[in-house]
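ok new one. same drill as before - structure tokens go in, u give me an amino acid for every spot. 227 of them this time. try not to just spam alanines like last time pls lmao
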């Protein structure tokens, strides 16, 4: 399944290359919401909140009730998790808060699952240079994505694996890395990072893995009718 993404930064819809270089910026949030309305899942990320540099909460609050959203970015407390779900999000994506002192934070993961239900928690195990990265992909931790999913599996209903090394480059994702993560867990896995073509989406779908696509949609490389 294709899951289109809406990334928010400085009040605008953006696409970044590897989480760093701005490639696309749009003021037409409502237009993208309308284009994505027919999709059963949409990913909505507050990049400023993820990086700890600000917030696009007003936009998150506006979009979450209008689309079947999974929302991430800066969800680091039980109260914030509940708040975002109350906005209308179907699920929350948690990354940084699931890691402490370079390792998975099982205590927080358990408390979050108990508070909102593990089925509404998506654990992000984003990888760069072979290690999980947090805080907007700026800080590596001392575990691989495979190691992280094995520890966090009891406390979430799904994993989001972004291969940051390929993010925004539109050169294809690392299928073997995605398969390794999927093989390490019984939970559903969604892949992101460089996914560009219908063939990639179909290959992932055949393996039971959803595909988050951003840059290829926003540049018109992948037409929504092809998704």
């Amino acid at each position: 399944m294709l899951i289109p993404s809406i990334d928010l930064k400085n009040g605008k819809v953006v696409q970044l290359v590897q989480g760093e270089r701005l490639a696309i910026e749009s003021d037409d949030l409502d237009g993208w919401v309308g284009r994505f309305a027919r999709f059963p899942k949409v990913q909505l990320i507050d990049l400023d909140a993820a990086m700890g540099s600000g917030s696009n909460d007003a936009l998150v609050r506006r979009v979450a009730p209008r689309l079947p959203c999974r929302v991430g970015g800066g969800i680091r407390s039980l109260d914030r998790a509940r708040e975002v779900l109350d906005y209308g999000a179907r699920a929350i994506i948690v990354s940084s808060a699931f890691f402490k002192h370079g390792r998975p934070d099982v205590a927080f993961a358990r408390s979050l699952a108990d508070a909102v239900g593990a089925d509404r928690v998506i654990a992000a195990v984003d990888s760069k240079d072979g290690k999980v990265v947090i805080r907007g992909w700026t800080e590596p931790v001392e575990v691989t994505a495979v190691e992280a999913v094995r520890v966090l599996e009891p406390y979430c209903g799904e994993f989001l694996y972004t291969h940051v090394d390929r993010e925004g480059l539109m050169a294809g994702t690392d299928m073997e890395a995605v398969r390794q993560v999927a093989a390490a867990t019984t939970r559903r896995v969604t892949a992101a990072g460089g996914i560009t073509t219908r063939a990639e989406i179909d290959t992932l779908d055949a393996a039971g893995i959803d595909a988050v696509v951003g840059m290829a949609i926003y540049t018109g490389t992948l037409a929504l009718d092809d998704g």
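DSSP finds nine helices and 15 strands in the chain. and btw The radius of gyration is 16 Å.
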